Amino acid sequence: MNTKSLIIADQIFNSRLFVGTGKYASGTVMRESIEASGSEMVTMAMKRVQLNGPDDGIINYLPRDRYQLLPNTSGVRDAKEAVFAAHLAREALQTNWLKLEIHPDPKYLLPDPVETLAAAEELVKAGFIVLPYVHADPVLCKRLEEVGVAAVMPLGAPIGTNLGLETRRFLEIIIDQANVPVVVDAGLGAPSHAAEAMEMGADAVLVNTALATAADPVKMGLAFKMAVEAGRIAFESGKAVSRQIEAEASSPLTAFLDS
Amino acid sequence: MNTKSLIIADQIFNSRLFVGTGKYASGTVMRESIEASGSEMVTMAMKRVQLNGPDDGIINYLPRDRYQLLPNTSGVRDAKEAVFAAHLAREALQTNWLKLEIHPDPKYLLPDPVETLAAAEELVKAGFIVLPYVHADPVLCKRLEEVGVAAVMPLGAPIGTNLGLETRRFLEIIIDQANVPVVVDAGLGAPSHAAEAMEMGADAVLVNTALATAADPVKMGLAFKMAVEAGRIAFESGKAVSRQIEAEASSPLTAFLDS
Amino acid sequence: MNTKSLIIADQIFNSRLFVGTGKYASGTVMRESIEASGSEMVTMAMKRVQLNGPDDGIINYLPRDRYQLLPNTSGVRDAKEAVFAAHLAREALQTNWLKLEIHPDPKYLLPDPVETLAAAEELVKAGFIVLPYVHADPVLCKRLEEVGVAAVMPLGAPIGTNLGLETRRFLEIIIDQANVPVVVDAGLGAPSHAAEAMEMGADAVLVNTALATAADPVKMGLAFKMAVEAGRIAFESGKAVSRQIEAEASSPLTAFLDS
Amino acid sequence: MNTKSLIIADQIFNSRLFVGTGKYASGTVMRESIEASGSEMVTMAMKRVQLNGPDDGIINYLPRDRYQLLPNTSGVRDAKEAVFAAHLAREALQTNWLKLEIHPDPKYLLPDPVETLAAAEELVKAGFIVLPYVHADPVLCKRLEEVGVAAVMPLGAPIGTNLGLETRRFLEIIIDQANVPVVVDAGLGAPSHAAEAMEMGADAVLVNTALATAADPVKMGLAFKMAVEAGRIAFESGKAVSRQIEAEASSPLTAFLDS
């Protein structure tokens, strides 16, 4: 299969599926699920890699030669906290890569557009490779691009809901306008959702809850892997367009009864 | 991968993707697309296998040891015509398998429930392995099951529209109630649609227009193959349930800023 | 307001909202809710009008000079039972009008297309004004029309679910093809659903659960009344068409900043 | 009907339908359509009220004792231009009311969250009654509320598309969290869309394209008026909840055939 690879910040990714590390039953299950998924980009909250005190050893499950670690700033509430967390993450994990997420509201965990833009600008200047998690807001995505983010990560639906591409119409616009990779993040609850995002032309997707909370996270890792690849191939194959209501037979009508 | 195989009428199918033969640019493209799809069940309108006069040689592209041929009665308008066409098909192709489709209306090509049930009953008695194409009507599907059809083929959307699972709610009921395989047919316009049907628990899907009219039908064949497998694996992995609106973080919130 | 009236079987209806009588907390609430709804067509299950034994007096709440009673055959499982029930209903209520509903399955209460067509044909011959409740099956609706039903009543969603127009695509075809009034029945859970059906060109809608189980059924009766009228007026006003994604300003862009 | 009135910035509105002034065929049609709609809040682009040169006299059609004029900043591209336009508008129309809209992109006309927040803060301080037009971004809406806007106007779909409530899930969150009125703006293409927004608990809706481009804008004005009222009444009546798929009969099943 000769699908073009994804490139972010000059790094090549053979997989267009990004994964998270939360909610898994154990480190072993997590490792096997992520292996099955084929992912090469793994995000984690900073708390999981605490330097002091007993950490959960998450890093041990994720060999650095295999995965690009993508620390995220989940839990911060404004740009200042985000910048602080980013520097901590860089030091702890020895990586410039950062998933920037700022959600002041603990109930819906939706991102703050204004703080995110401010933090992104500052972090880009400080040498970070910034991938901001944002609402599916086309104008915000363009502004983030202008300050130099490496990709944008608009949400499909509120995080953890498994609802799929509720923001479909806006993702289409974002993809149409983007000059950086678009990674659809949050809300993808099934392989079909991931496939749909890829068919629309998204460059990658990020999935966590749907993998980690499946009855069989390893098998589900494989399912998402295949769905993402299927969606990408379909995009490259020129997916047929939906047509309104008047049907057309797949087969020419038989004439043999009338002849 | 240890996915249970599909069995219809005691025959084992390793692929859960059924394909059609209409609308392809050439016989060669058709053959390559179907090969890429991994399908083992291929449907065709009887006109394509005309016995007299110059036929289009469609059969030559489909080796019998590789594909179960599934002649369909597309073009007939009532039970009587369908039964007549079925017998012709059996003789011409030397197979008992039959996709029964009766659509009196040339505009939308939607199936007739009453004629379909009557023809199905008669054809089952005459020894056919009958797979009827029907509206996503749960009661009709049960009645067809009662007269002995080998599978039911409810539609996802009007044929040729590529709209996807417009009949989602009713397919769920059909799948919940069925004691024979459920093959979602018509309207599947993208691999994500096929994956979704499989995630819901459909036993197989049939695709034609979306394959044959893709810019690259061969690559698209592969995309559908992978999507169908992904959807099936997800179904077996226990797909997570969609949750209403209140978000839950994938990652535990970081505490490091507050400590 | 000069909206054309609905005519079924030569009878004029000023309201395009049909209502049911089930699930109300009391006869008084039912009467007031129906009054508020402005409905002139009221359906009821035959059990509610039992001739022997203590009935619930439902008829007393529904003056005959104000409402066309539409007895329904809810509970019957095949054509034979339906025909029997229809004759009982005619005798009991002294009306030829009949909502024909046949659902053999007690779980989802979906209608049987084959039995419904058979019963409709027989009942039309016996002089009934037949309004069959059916799945949103365009071919079945045409066949019912051919045997002489006075209107067709396709469902929007499984009864009692309040899900709205899940069968939208098929209702569009039914409305496009129909030569008798189309009454969208079942599943309408909100005034917006009723308005949408009317905007699509439905001739009327039938609502029960959403009225009877509202916190305030009387106020909700008014809400449905207004929504149905609004939808009808919109249909007559030439509703604007949905356009795909590229926006167009409602207002001409201001030039004053550039000048 | 005893529906609670809408109050914004201490002003009472008897109508929850706001309208625009663009795209009408003539001033007379506009006036009649708006009259039919019952609206008391009318927005207009500043260009329409040009002080110098021949204006289109739009103001003459809109008596000040009947309508609250809501000048909008359509066409500006950043906060600075918006503030300038706002001051011009206040002077020209002698009103503090302002619909703040900033969309740097001429293709999709989607609002800029960062510029909008900055402009809103400054304009509130300058004594304006600010109603910002924004993406359906719950966090942004809270931040606008914190700087003192009088209401928030999240979009339902890209302006002019008539697609309805594409942002449904996010509007629910915005409404759930808001302490100021929520006015759903943009994309409402049919009365049913407006009714749905009101049923969800929106405080008002703004419609322009769907009115102005209807075949009969005056009749359509009435349709929207009724639909908005119907939706509001339904909200106050406690709309029944959608239930998943298992049906429940509206009428108790008849027992008479079994007895």
From TrEMBL, chains A, B, C, D:
GO function terms (MF aspect): thiazole synthase activity
E.C. code: 2.8.1.10
Pathway per the UniProt entry: Cofactor biosynthesis; thiamine diphosphate biosynthesis
Leading EC class: transferase
Active site: K99 (schiff-base intermediate with dxp)
Keyword list, A-Z: Cytoplasm, Schiff base, Thiamine biosynthesis, Transferase
GO biological process: thiamine diphosphate biosynthetic process
Keyword Transferase in annotation: yes
Cell compartment(s), UniProt: Cytoplasm
Keyword S-adenosyl-L-methionine: no
Domain Thiazole synthase ThiG: 8-252
Binding site for 1-deoxy-D-xylulose 5-phosphate: G160, A186, G187, N208, T209
Main localisation: cytoplasm
Assembly, per entry: Homotetramer. Forms heterodimers with either ThiH or ThiS.
Record's function text: Catalyzes the rearrangement of 1-deoxy-D-xylulose 5-phosphate (DXP) to produce the thiazole phosphate moiety of thiamine. Sulfur is provided by the thiocarboxylate moiety of the carrier protein ThiS. In vitro, sulfur can be provided by H(2)S.
Name of the molecule in the record: Thiazole synthase
